[in-house]
Design goal:
Strand content: 5-15%
Shape: globular
Length: 433
Amino acid sequence: MANERSVPTSRLSRFAKLGSLATGVATNMLVGGAKSALSGKGWDNKSLLLQPKNIENLATQLSHLRGAAMKLGQLLSMDAGDLLTPELAQLLSLLRSDANPMPHKQLVSVLKEQWGEDWLSRFSHIELRPFAAASIGQVHLAFKENGAQLAVKIQYPGIEKSVVSDVDNVITLLTLSRLLPKELDIKPLVAEAKAQLLAEADYTREAEYLARYKNLLADNAHFKVPSVYPQHSTAQVLTMEYVDAKSIEGITYLPQSERSRVAEQLIDLFFKEMFVFNLIQTDPNFANFHYQPESQKIVLFDFGATREITPALSNAYLALFKAGSNNDREGVLNAATDIGYFKDSLKDNYKEKVIDLFLMACEPLRYHGEFDFKNSALASNIKDAGLQLSAQSQQWHTPPVDALFIHRKLAGLYLIAARLEAKIDIKALFSHY
């Protein structure tokens, strides 16, 4: 567990943190640029910005801020995937699971605010040292009088109030650094990022989704969803059954057939979410998936990023996957138009490239037999096609927000399948839907 660091709660203190980060990054760029220029290599803003010293500084400061700033850092590390340089991916991956826990004094202040002055009387014991810490909250072990173990997720103070300013500040940094294409209208995405992060900061909402998933998967032998304790939960504290399980990244020692089954069940759950539940947990962070080798159950954590899906969007994606599985370009075009990717169904070079990208992503749906995720060139092919598409940035328009979350989940599942070296008959799996 990382060292304790107090969470800055005021807008001014959080802005000052980001300001000092920007100053430090700028200084590193000037020093690195001068060295590069003196050695005759020239001055490249982008490579100077992404030098390891800056990325390490970014990871450290965002980890200290937690909340929206750190969440955006996590999104960069997860979603970019194969697009990042190994150095950048490694440093940003620091944000995926661990944050600095808040000091005991700040923790106790939060618990008194949420549970009242007699907060200690709720349990026979509660560990003040968290066993897990992430972007929006940290998790503590508690014990009931009968010995039952609970997991208590406690939100960092000031998160809800800081979301809007944190997102604006980080986007400003990215814009100034020219990492975001100026042709891309990111206003709808920024607005949605704020709405999503505010939703994730409401633990009452998360508790409701957790209970819904537990009900939806009650008869599914492959999954375990923790129970919620509403009497010990508030908008900033979520109390659940403690479930002992291994991280999904820590089961690579298991037989290949078992690893494949785990990845297969996660992809099958994605299909159920899309086409049966009309409800999807959109955060594919590896830390949200654990496994119990003894019971062979997949344990699902963190339902803050859950989104409802309209029947129309569900049907459009079903049509897209069907067309993709049949290599039907016209069908992909029509489905993508229904989803909201294009303003009309008239074909042009840009749309043809987007269709190519969709068909590429649907490759596992067309493959006869077990698709080998580890040895597939799928990720690099999608990367190359995406880079070619970015060359036509003048034709970009903002994709539908729901689509971005859905694609993020599917891309994350592909990464998990590759990490587990899974071999899955995706075509057979999809045929049930």
